[in-house]
């Protein structure tokens, strides 16, 4: 008798994992800890699994994702936005943990999902980059708040918080540099990236941690992954403006700041920006074009294991 390959959806909460198997209709739960992960792996290892999917859930999914991946099971991380769009298209308005687990299983059976390749070397760097981004966002919020308060005591309080956050960010920068330098492969990637004028340690660490596909995809694929590939907006006689959409926002945000610097201080990109502006492109359009050119240049550098050269742009 032919065995049916199963699609397994997992809804992740802080303390519990709700699991749904589409083909059999099974629903069960395990604890979101090492014991629960081991029980889940044991239960699924004896089945013919097509794919297991779980939604990114603020980091609570990392441990079970790693456990399933280490067990050799075909696990995938699902983009929450795509999942919500799928639910709307399917007319699923209700929401609870079990419904979400079934929804993920249906999503896996309907739409293609990309495989993941976990690299244990990146765990610490990814954690540090994420923590730094969160601290930087908090620092921006505190600074913005300080601009609007009038009470001297509140201003002093905001200043102390900002000073502390800035010190913590500097500590994370030092720890990031140490973590990258400790691994020869990551250190080499960091040297290649930072050989490019206007690519500093923050962008380099962000690309290493959050864009491990760099150097392994085509230029168009890597631009789309970051959210910099322009998409058509045409219908019949309507010829709308092409626009970028989606992608990895944390990478795109850091790349934006680097592109602002490159458009002024990197001679190659400064010339490119000036040409775009002379051709009538808006300033924001020119910056996005620099971002796209910068990430595709870095992609080629990592692919070819070659440092920055103006001739390669």
From TrEMBL:
InterPro entries listed in its UniProt record: Transp_IS110-like_N (IPR002525), Transpos_IS110 (IPR047650), Transposase_20 (IPR003346)
Swiss-Prot/TrEMBL GO biological process terms: DNA transposition
Residues annotated as domain Transposase IS116/IS110/IS902 C-terminal: 191-272
Recorded coiled-coil stretches: none
Domain of life: Bacteria
Domain Transposase IS110-like N-terminal: 8-147
Protein name: IS110 family transposase
Organism listed in the record: Mesorhizobium temperatum
């Amino acid at each position: 008798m032919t065995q049916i390959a199963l699609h397994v959806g997992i809804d992740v909460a802080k303390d519990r994992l709700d699991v749904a198997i589409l083909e059999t209709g099974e629903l069960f739960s395990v604890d979101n800890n090492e014991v629960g992960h081991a029980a889940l792996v044991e239960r699924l290892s004896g089945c013919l699994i097509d794919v297991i999917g779980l939604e990114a859930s603020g980091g609570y999914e990392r441990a079970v994702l790693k456990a399933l991946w280490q067990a050799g099971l075909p696990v995938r991380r699902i983009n929450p936005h795509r999942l919500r769009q799928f639910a709307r298209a399917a007319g699923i308005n209700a929401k609870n943990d079990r419904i979400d687990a079934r929804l993920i299983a249906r999503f896996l059976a309907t739409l293609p999902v990309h495989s993941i390749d976990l690299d244990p070397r990146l765990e610490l760097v990814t954690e540090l980059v994420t923590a730094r981004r969160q601290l930087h966002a908090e620092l921006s919020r505190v600074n913005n708040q300080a601009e609007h308060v009038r009470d001297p005591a509140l201003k002093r309080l905001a200043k102390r918080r900002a000073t502390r956050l800035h010190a913590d960010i500097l500590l994370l920068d030092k720890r990031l540099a140490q973590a990258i330098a400790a691994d020869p492969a990551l250190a080499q990637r960091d040297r290649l990236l930072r050989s490019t004028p206007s690519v500093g340690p923050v962008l380099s660490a962000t690309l290493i941690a959050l864009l491990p596909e760099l150097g392994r995809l085509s230029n168009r694929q890597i631009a789309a992954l970051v959210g910099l590939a322009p998409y058509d907006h045409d219908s019949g006689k309507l010829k709308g403006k092409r626009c970028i959409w989606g992608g990895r926002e944390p990478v795109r945000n850091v790349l934006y700041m680097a592109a602002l610097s490159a458009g002024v201080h990197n001679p190659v990109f400064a010339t490119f920006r000036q040409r775009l502006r002379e051709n009538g492109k808006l300033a924001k359009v020119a910056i996005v074009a620099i971002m796209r050119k910068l990430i595709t240049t870095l992609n080629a550098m990592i692919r070819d294991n070659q440092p920055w050269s103006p001739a390669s742009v």
